[in-house]
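A student in our group prepared the protein record below, which I am reviewing. Here is the record exactly as it was handed to me.
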Amino acid sequence: MKHSYYNKVKLCLVLALSIIGISIYGQGKGFVVGVVTDTLNRPIEFANIAIQNTNMGSSSDENGRYRLKVVSNQRLVFLVTCVGYIPNSFELTIENEERREVNIKLIPISNRIEEVSVISTRRKFGNIEKINTKSLEFIPDASGNFESILKSLPGVSSSNELSSQYSVRGGNFDENLVYVNGVEIYRPSLVRSGQQEGLSFVNSDMVSGVEFSSGGFNAEYGDKMSSVLNIKYRKPEKNAANVNISLLGANFTVEGLSKNKKITHITGFRYKTSKYLLNTLDAKGDYRPVYLDLQSYLNYDISPKFSMSFLGSYSTNKYQFIPGDRETRFGTFNNALQLKVYYEGQEINTFETALGAVSAEFKPNDNLLFKLTSSGFVTYEHETYDLLGEYLLNELDNSLGSSTYGDSLINVGIGGSLSHARNFLNTRVLSVDNSNIWVSGVNKLKWGVKYQHEMVDDQISEWKLIDSSGYSVPISPDELKLSYALKTSNTLNSNRINGYVQDELNISGGKFNYIITAGARLSYWDYNNEYIFSPRASITAEPSWRKDISFHLSGGFYYQPPFYKELRFTNGILNPSIKSQKSIQFVLGSEYRFMAWDRPFRFTSELYYKNLSNLIPYKVDNVSIRYSGKNMAKGYAYGLDLKINGELVSGAESWASLSVMRTYESIANDTYIDPNISILHTGYYPRPTDQRVNFGVFFQDYLPGNPTFRVHLSAHFSTGLPVSAPINVTQYSPITRMPSYKRIDIGFSKIFKDDVGKGGAKLNGVKWLKGLWVSAEVFNLLNINNTVSYLWVQTVNNQENESGTYAVPNYLTSRRINIKLTAKF
């Protein structure tokens, strides 16, 4: 009987274990992943994704991505919440080992409730702003470059639609940091004009996230004085393709992932030709610009803790121009002038760039990340031209009602110029960069170190001969003198080492919630044996009793170590004693989020001051910067930046920005001789980037009840920049200002099908077509002649053979219409 009892017990145990085993097998695991976005497809950070009646949940990261481990073979209810958005929910049943992708869209709360604050579009955390790249697809812009979205941001200035270069808060083009996936990007050195520039590095079709700071940025970013642009390329989550064709070129992007989803790739090809635009310039001739670019970004998740990636790029920008003639009318009503030039010769410029970067990431746990990146950057720049120009400078008849009104009356000058250049620059930069992150509770610690080796080979041979009425200018009775000449050859091999440490502390509770960041950088360059120490800090405060407003204060010491161009004296010799330029910055800002017309809006303001020292004076001609090669100036910059952005119509973001600033510098013991042979002390004078007022607008709208018909308007106004004397004159203080820059571009789009499948009924049935729209764009709608630089014409104008100098404006492009087709698969 006892034996029988034990047999029953054994049987019960076997059955129980079997049931438990079956239950365990039936409740395997699966994964739910995806992206949380708002109505404008912008990622939402800190959204909570929880499973009802369980303690399982996750939150979205800065890119809106989330990953949640769940029990399989059960009907689960998911709840999605975020402050300022209407809660969402959905139900799923996940099979064992299944990985289901669910993308979630949250709608902002329309009605403001006292207990719930509304988070408006694109939160700005301290001095870093996250930029919505969705609008890039619709911004009408002649350059077609990614940087077009920056030009309407507060503090950013660009008065050249052909160029991707921009200045920030009184800095020049060389003072902006640009990173793509943590790899620093360099701008060409020999480019003189926007039409030579071609494609910028960033491929907007590959971008997933953008962060921008116009000053006061943290220690984790490098050593430059003005701004930082941090771009992340997309890690694909599905197979897709994108095609964009217009009168100015074409783009093609393809992305995908392997069956096990461990390997992802995204590759983009771009072709651009600006011949259609350049034919509107005053200089007529045969323009042959061809710009090509190929980029690829690969990822391999070897294990959940270890991954590797590769970023590769090759681009070639070739600009060939065979000029014919030029006619430019300028001056005032009382002194109307006309320049007529007949050319011979040609200009050929080639800029080739290649970049390769391999990164390895190791994440032993959720709190620790190690990253090692090895990169190589190579650029070959060739600038060659032989141009003979024979010119006539005439005064025009300005008498209203005259039968010869607008015709030439008097010849002011006649002459010719012969320009020659054979400039070759080869730059190679090799670097190894280690960056790490450790998160512990309310602390986030970042630290890193970077080694960089630079090799530069530079050969410059350029000169200019001016002849006016049979006289060589400058006039010499004994010899033939060139107006300008520079011939030099330099080689530079140097090493840089820099490191940083930064801690971020989040403090909650009490009347305010704080984010406090403090850190420092230490850098060394063996060319001039210079050490620089750069402490930086920022604090963001948000009232716990009113979360629709926040304040931030940031500042520190920011240095601009010379790269190569800054080293050269005006005679081409390198200066081994040169030091880093220095900027002590303070930035005070606020952000206010509010509702209007039942839609979210955001108003930001920043007040800043920069104390500048060890400055290297320079002159700007179009996009070319010529440095003096010496630390011989001090200066300052201060200003106010304002911006408001939001949805004037649902689902279409618009914004407007206003910047007011002033930047001056002073060269110690600087004097010059005026036309009256008087010695004058310069004192403080406007820097070449002293653009007092900048106003930018991007506006989107669509037909009521039919959002597939849209209009996109981009408008810019900037006061005139200071104009320095020609490069062969040593005076750095400005002699005049350019006219203000005024431009309006407008685009009209018809969306046949968008990313979420809305559009015409016929196309909704085409499963392989994800999106399709056609745009018509009008560049320079008002056909305004904007001045980008000046052509300096010298003449012999009296019996004493004294030469006169005339600044003839170089105008930018006129009105043009562009047609663009975009398709997504």
